[in-house]
Amino acid sequence: MSLDKATVSHIAKLARIKLADDRQDVLADELNSILGWVEQLSAVDTGDTPPLANVTGHDLPEREDVVNDGDIAARVLANAPDPIDAFFAVPKVIE
Amino acid sequence: MTGSAMIITGATGDWEVVIGLEVHAQVLSAAKLFSGAATSFGAAPNQQVSLVDAAMPGMLPVINKHCVAQAVRTGLGINAKINLVSVFDRKNYFYADLPQGYQISQFTQPIVGEGEIEILLADGSSKSIGIERLHLEQDAGKLMHDQHPAKSVVDLNRSGVALMEIVSKPDLRSPEEAGAYVTKLRSIMRYLQTCDGNMEQGSLRADANVSVRRPGDPLGTRCEIKNVNSIKFLMQAIDYEARRQVELIEDGGSVDQETRLFDANSGTTRTMRSKEDAHDYRYFPDPDLLPLVITPEQVAAIKADLPELPDVKKARLVTDYGVSEIDATILTEERETARFYEIASHGRDGKLVANWLISELFGLLNKAGRSLADSPVLPENLGGLIDLISDGTISGRIAKDVFAEMFESGEEAAAIVDAKGLKQVSDSAAIEPLINAVIAANADKLAEYKAGKDKLFGFFVGQVMKQSGGKANPQMVNQLLRQKLDA
To answer: Are residues A32 and A2 in contact, defined by beta-carbon separation less than 8 angstroms?
Structure first.
């Protein structure tokens, strides 16, 4: 697998990262070397190995259907740069 | 193929419409899917938000096991395969109502696989609609645009609430079928108590994938109409969109696969601007959540606890109470209606009770803008009225007046009949004098009748009934009049 400059630019756009033009080739090289390193795994024959998602031996922790959180609007909004009343406010995004 | 498929006759021939629906149903639960914040509708802004829902760094999701059970329950209700192992994935996109920058959803391994439901169409036929999958996911927050001239404001109360996304196969062929499908799905979930189905409050919303093709051709390019929040609008949106596509193709154009919005004011659909990159979601398994594993025993326990569902209940009403298919469908669409009916008809004439419930009570409730849940007439009291009709205490005509009075006052039928002296008169000694008086007062009509004008019989019946204040037993009046006039 190999990334070209256009793909890097697309990924940057999706991630909302501003990327100068002259950085794109450099990043493509760096990302390709990371991908190449990970790709070594495909040399292992996993034909008879079931997929593994969990090495901890734990099960997914669960909660009861009980309301025990919330009512903390002030804390939730504490970092909001420009709240209006108890709302977050963002530049107008309308369809 | 049933007769309910929509065929659009264009300038160049016939077009068939193909529809698949994605229904988002809010899970009925007290707390959210991965946090302990409340889910109730109408709270003050950002009041039902935990630090998990606000995506504060370091917060971890912990799954609400009731929401999992609700998804399994719904899966069983739509005759679907339950997947004992399912996986939560991150669906990545940026939007102001999504603080995490991704939605936790299920992509390759949903909790519920293929199923099917039966829909009933207006011509009385039914059709089986395939279901592709049902998966659990988080709802996003809510954006509002009218609070400030330059800003949109965000309320995260809905953020993290559990949704079931239910995806149909492209088996629907008309707006009518799409409407019937959503109606049936809603009815099933209300019976199951897994979703309240309240479309005005947004707890049930639908996206429609619409395409057109020549009958028998492969599928055409589809457009997705997002977030329609009523069945009426859904049907309008599909109708408009299908005609738009036919017109476009016949004018030499082609349909672009795109996301569109329905505008309820104009009844049209239009392109959604900001979604060009939106389909690149870069799904990957959420590293914060282990696979969701449920046991066959848990599924069996949920199955054992399922209520009687609409199709089974409908069949039972037809067999046990002798009501028609159509009446049975009306009576079983809502669980509450079926419950009301079964109490009212217990030990009584099922057809008669169905008639009174559907035409009379629903009529009055509609007029008063009330629902069956706050009906002033209780099911036992409707039953009491039916008893008085069945044993001849009151006539059908008087029964309507009594019923109107019951609806006003909430009183029992027997009490009203007693208080107003409305008992039907079936005593010939009481009816005969009325007949004699009517005949005496209408000597001219009597002569005409004797001369062969048979139709006047109805006139005499009417006069006698009027004299009795509607209380005379109509069969008795008929019988006694025949004896007198034809003597």
So the answer is: yes
